[in-house]
Amino acid sequence: MLHSTYYKVMKTLKDANIKNKKILLRVDFNITIQDGRVTEDFRMRATLPTINYLLENGANRIIIISHFGRPNGERNSDYSLWPAAKHLSKLLNLEVEFLENIESGKKFQGEIALLENLRFYKEEEENDREFSKELSALGEIFLQDAFGVCHREHASIVGVPKILPSYAGLLLEKEVSTLASILENPKRPLTILIGGAKISTKMAVIEKFLDFADNVCLGGALANIVLKAKGMAVGKSFIEESMIEKVKEIEFTNTRLHLPIDVKISQDKDASNGIKIKAAGSVNDDEIILDIGPDTQQLFANIIHKSKTVVWNGPVGYLENPKFAEGTEYIAKELARAGAGALTVIGGGDTYQTLEKLGVMDKVSFVSTGGGAMLDFLAKGTLPGIEALK
Q1: Which of 13, 275, 353, 369 is deepest in the core (most CB within 10 A)?
Q2: CB 180 within 8 A of CB 9
Q3: What is the pLDDT of residue 198?
């Protein structure tokens, strides 16, 4: 069992007697599927150790359950997990049966299967008690390995553990252990670098780490609102107006806080030319901040290389246009160069996809399968899905 002041006692897979048992395994297969084919499978590969452990240690039957996208409680072929079942078969070199509904899951007599998208059922996101019972009928033991949605109070996250004996899978155990070590006893200097669009989803972790970390570096669209709150011009850059007053509560003179000192701007986020580098605060009314500039890249890189622990979540530019991906790719490369002496932890889909694109995924210490879940855990020290396993 894992012991921590942050998540107390969490039962794990190796505590469970799985021999000849029917296993209900919750995973996060929120992957990329295009034209009926899996084109990005990091979250799927991350849970293979748990699946292989079950196969190798005598589990009688494994039914895997997951969400995929946001079909809003309705069946939609664009959000079917059928391609994921085919892809998982290839990864395991073993036929994975696809179950179209819960009733077919109750009749399943094979070795391993994947159930259709949980979010085809509106009761999943409603955390419906009867739906939790229906899911629970598919197994004798429940394994939670979907860290990326453990911050959600959904039926398959917090409902099923109230019914079945429940344990953390190997991936969830590794996620929690790594992130808890940062909260409990980090190697310092500790730096957190946060990007992305909305500051509202990241304000709690920013406030916590301004007190706890040695450095807090902000980039991406969420940095725009901090610049504006400081009285600096941000043109027509995206900001969350509703957060202005809250952001003004930040102590801007805090020496731990590092904001962009130069920015890449354009009048059009889809531009291929007419792009300029300007000092932060000198942006015209008709201009948009779309990336950090070279001086900010160097500033953040210098901080990274002086740190012993670095946590990064969220791009620092508008990745939809390759012209504004330079800052994010620069940060990724510098983190990959941080060396064996530093713990580097990455989270968020856009962030790890940049690492994959650059071929440096294996150069960082740990890549979390969660974006919002990672930030929530760092802010609160636990998550509803973890609490449900106690």
Answers
A1: 369
A2: no
A3: 87
CA distance 222 to 339: 28
> Considering 8, 133, 198, 269, which one is annotated as catalytic?
198
372 is catalytic: yes
Q: Is the pTM for the entire model greater than 0.85?
A: yes
The verdict on whether 198 is a catalytic residue reads yes
Q: Mean pLDDT, to the nearest integer, of 85-102?
A: 98
In the predicted model, is pLDDT for residue 8 greater than 70?
no
| Residue 278 structure tokens | 């300007």
Does the annotation mark 195 as catalytic? no
Read off the tokens for 284.
Answer: 């015209």
Which of 327, 372, 381, 385 is the catalytic position?
Answer: 372
**Could you read off the pLDDT of 194-234 as tens digits, one per residue?**
999 889 999 999 999 999 999 999 999 999 999 999 999 99
Out of 349, 370, 371, 381, the active site residue is 349
Q: Give φ, ψ of 254 to 5 degrees.
A: -60, 120
Assign 121 to helix, strand or coil: coil
- Active-site annotation holder among 11, 26, 43, 202: 43
Architecture of domain 188-341: 3-Layer(aba) Sandwich (3.40)
| Residue extents of the structural domains in the chain | 2-174+383-387, 188-341
Return the pLDDT at 96: 98
